[in-house]
Every structure is written in structure tokens, then in C-alpha cells.
Amino acid sequence: MEKNKKRSYLDYAASAPVDTRVGKVMRKAEKTFANPNSLHSFGMEARKILESARADIASALGLRPDDAFGEIIFTGSATEANNLALRGVLSSAAKKTRIPAKPKIIISKVEHDSVYETAKDIKREGLADVAFIPVNKNGVVDVPRLAKELDSRTVLVSVMYVNNEVGTVEPVKEISKIISDFRKTQTDKLFPVFHTDAVQAFQYFDCNVGSLGVDLLTLSAHKLCGPKGVGALFARGGGLADNERPIKSVTTGGEQEFGLRGGTQNVQGIAGFAEAVRIASASRAKEFARVLRIRRLMIKEIKKLCPRAEVNGDKSGKFSSPHVLNVWFPGITSDFLLMKLDMEGVAASSGSACRAHAPTPPRTVTEMFGIERAKESVRFSMGKYTTHEDVKILVKVLKRTIGRA
Question: Which residue numbers delimit the Aminotransferase class V domain (predicted)?
Fold first, then answer.
């Protein structure tokens, strides 16, 4: 790539640049270096920052400040939070005498790998049976099929809020109502527990856990222009006795985070996480409209340049987040196109960064349309610093690249 050539970053679904305001908060928090679990005054200063951040994130999820204590669990990543959600619920269910010896969990076929691969491992380990629910051509989970899979052995349902590869918004509220109604018919009212991975949703959609009706919800800081290495899990029932909570720790050797996640908390990162959450909450409606305009322009320009190209997923925008646009370029492999784009200064991807080095194409497009189409599909994802200029740069590069394909 030429040294002074304009560059365009269109991979926000993988990670976003840190907001300068977040960086400022983190630098301030860095001065308070003590372990937040220590009882001396230095530790108490760090604990104050930690609990203030916990309260801010709880508020952004529609919780009362008092509920933050015990219901917001800080982790090292969203992947860790998702693992805790799945394995923690199974661990809790195993302690309940009313739960069958072989419990069952239900997930969609297009979950992030941190849910999908964890579920597969759980099945291989013989800890639970797993039902994988298919999606339609828009990427929307088959809700009637999910409802039919619910039975007395079901302890957990996990369906992501916004898909990270094609941007589909899943009917979380509808699913939560089905689970809630089913749960009322069961002897043990704690199960099934409903978890949603909201990593790609928070910056554009309401994540009030009460209105969503979820029991567990995962967030990630670096998708919100916050720091990497910080995640959070909302886990309902912080005020319940330990034997009545639907989740238990899956690690040993530390009692931090209410006994659910051992390890000294990353106070600096957590402070930045809370600031990123605050900023995203305040700008959500404005950013949704702005990024949606960019997405529509991008679709228009790509179709003009390549009439055979098609959007993978919802074209109307009714079932899609504004920040993710997955496009099928017939006859052009994603590997070739991504390489050419990168050489010209445009960053995009074929799907989840977690699978960037995997030998198989992205699972979501494969589930929706088949492996051949998945091999010719590229994901563009936008965010806070994306502008119309980025679309112009992309179109210019595509014009040169597709012409040589």
C-alpha cells in the first residue's frame, strides 16, 4: 500500500478504536493501583472505582443501583462471560435434585464461537444434550422450533441479540416470553435460564434486561470503543441465596466477583468500560440513524458497481443492526477480495475475528445459504468514526479490484 494513500477501517464488529474520553478515564484510574479486594485505604480507593463502574453499567441495563451488587460480574472478555453463562448454569443445575441427571441446553446454530463451541464441548463431555436451532434466510432463529425443544430437562437457552457476522437482530423478547411461560409450568421455577450475547447490540439497541426478559446478558468493552480484555455478565438473582441462584462459578482459587469469577479485577479497564457504556448509551439513537444512512449508501453504491452482489440477511433493515453489512460477491472469493482490499488500505473481514484463521468459511452465512456462497462473502462493519468518506474509499477500491478479478 502506498504510504500516503487514504485508509478505511470497516471492521468495527471485530474491534473498535478506544474513545479519547475512555482513555482519559483509564489514565486517571491507573493512578489508583492497589488491589480492589484489599482492606486498607489504598484498596478501598480502587474498590470505589470498581463499584462505581458496576453501578453505572447496571444503570445502563435498567437495573437499580442496589441490584448492581451481585448481578454485574466483571470478566476478562465476553468469551469468558459466555463460558461462565453456559457452564455456570450447568454447574448450578447439577446441584439441584429436581433437575434430571442429563440436562439439556438450546442454542441457535449461528451463535458466536464462544457459545457454539462451548456448547459442542459440553455435549462431547457428556454434561448435557444440546439442541441446535436453525435460522431462516434472514438469519432469524426458528422460534417455533425452539419452543418445541423446551422440555423438563432444559436448563438453558442461549440466543444472541445481534449476530456478529450478518447483523441479524434476533427476537429476544419473543423468545423470553415463551421461556417465561414455560418456566411457570415447571417444578423448579429457576429453569430454563435465558441468556443472550449482546456484544454487538448494546451500542444500537436497548439492553434493558427487564424489558428484554433475560436472566443472563453478555457485554464486551472493546466493541463499544472501550479497552480490550474486559467483559461483563449480567446474572439475575444477586440477592438470592447461593443455592437458589441459577449460576455458579466454574473456576476455583478466588472469591472475587461475588464468588462467580476469581481473579483480581482490571480496575483501569473496568473504569474505561463503564465510560464507554455511558457514552454509547447517551448517543445510541443518534448513532443508529447515522450509521444506518452509511449502510444504505454502501448498499446502493455496491449494487451500482456490482449488480449481482447481494446482501446476506435482511435487506430491508427490519431485522438488521445498522452497523453490519455482509455482502455476497458472486464469482469472487472472499480471501482474494479481502487481500486486495487490505493492499489498498481498506480493512474488512469474512466474519468473526475469532475465526479469521479457521480453514472453514463463516458459519452464519454457511447456515443461511451454504458453503459456496459463504466463501464469496465479505463483512463490512461500521462504527463511531465511520463516515461517508469511508464509503467513497471502499467504492474506489472495489472498482479497481473487481475490475481485475
Answer: 9-394
CB within 8 Å of 316: residues ≥ 6 apart? none
d(CA 68, CA 209): 12
Whether residues 306 and 242 share a domain: the answer is: no
Please say which residue of 218, 253, 276 terminates a domain: 276
- Asked if residue 222 lies in contact with residue 14, where contact means CB atoms within 8 angstroms, the answer is no
Indicate if 263 and 291 belong to the same structural domain: no
| Domain-embedded: residue 263 | yes
Does residue 264 sit within a domain?
yes
Instruction: Specify the length of the chain in residues.
Output: 405
For residue 377, tell me if it sits in a domain.
yes
Measure the CA angle with vertex 234, ends 232 and 237; round to 5°: 145
Say which of 207, 225, 306, 354 is annotated catalytic: 354
The answer on 334 and 300 residing in a single domain is yes
Residue with cell 478479478: 405
CA separation (Å) from 235 to 84, 104, 254, 324, 383? Answer: 10, 20, 18, 28, 28
- E strand or H helix that includes residue 176: helix 172-183
Q: In angstroms, rounded to a whole number, what is the distance separating the alpha carbons of residues 45 and 47?
A: 5
Same domain, 91 and 234: yes
Binning the chain into helix, strand and coil, the percentages to the nearest 5 are 45, 15, 40
Q: Which domain holds residue 206?
A: 20-276
- Would residue 354 show up in a list of annotated catalytic residues for this protein? yes
User: How many Å apart are CA 11 and CA 92, to the nearest integer?
Assistant: 37
Boundary (domain end) residue, out of 276, 303, 336:
276
Residues 39 and 14 in one domain: no
Number of domains in the chain: 2
Indicate if 192 and 323 belong to the same structural domain.
Answer: no
Please state, in angstroms and rounded to a whole number, the distance separating the CA atoms of residues 261 and 274.
Answer: 19
Q: Residue 260 and residue 83: Cα distance in Å, rounded? A: 12
Contact 251, 257 (CB under 8 A): no
Q: Does any domain span residue 169?
A: yes
Instruction: State the 10-residue block means of pLDDT for the chain, 405 residues long.
Output: 75 97 96 92 95 94 78 96 96 73 93 97 95 96 98 96 97 97 87 97 97 97 97 85 77 84 93 98 97 96 95 85 97 94 94 56 94 96 97 94 69
For residue 91, with 0-12 CB atoms within 10 Å meaning exposed, 13-18 middle and 19 or more buried, which class applies? middle
Strands (E), 167-281: 193-197, 216-220, 231-235
